[in-house]
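Chapter review: from sequence to fold.
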Amino acid sequence: MKARGIAVGAVAIGAVLLGGCVTKARNERYMAGHFRAQAELHDAGGKVVGTAVAEQVEGSIRVLVDVNGISPGPHGVHVHTIGVCTPPDFTSAGGHWNPGATKHGKENPMGPHAGDLPNMKVDEKGHGHISFTLSGGTFDQLMDQDGAALVVHAGEDDYKSDPAGNSGGRIACGVFQTV
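The token string follows.
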């Protein structure tokens, strides 16, 4: 009985020490400005169609998106406010990430949202890639309590229509997870 108590105590102490190490590592990454999150993009049928990475870089957030297997042509791409991607329409991801309470679109004089990305051109083989730096928000704001998601839309963003750029339905979605 005494040995069991010692073992339980040792496990508890180990858990506290490990938790401290995780907190220390997170604080060191924060001080160095190295935060990173990844998302696996799924279509409405659950098939993996791409990936997205968001990473804090010198006070802004760089987003990289790669897709494979979606329809050719231009597609609106946005960071959304809630880290939930329930198919088939992915409306569970909420609206565009907009910590500055601005209007949608880089061509809107009162915009853009922090989560507005450029259109992604997808080639005839279904491959597409964009890389963009977001301004107007921090990594901590992005990865708040309800998380964030990256959404690919069916059509091209017109860069001005509020709230979503007239970019059509949501065809792929991925929840950002910190790494």
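Two observations follow directly from the output. The first strand starts at residue 36 and ends at 43. Residues 7-12, 14-32 have pLDDT under 50 and may be disordered.
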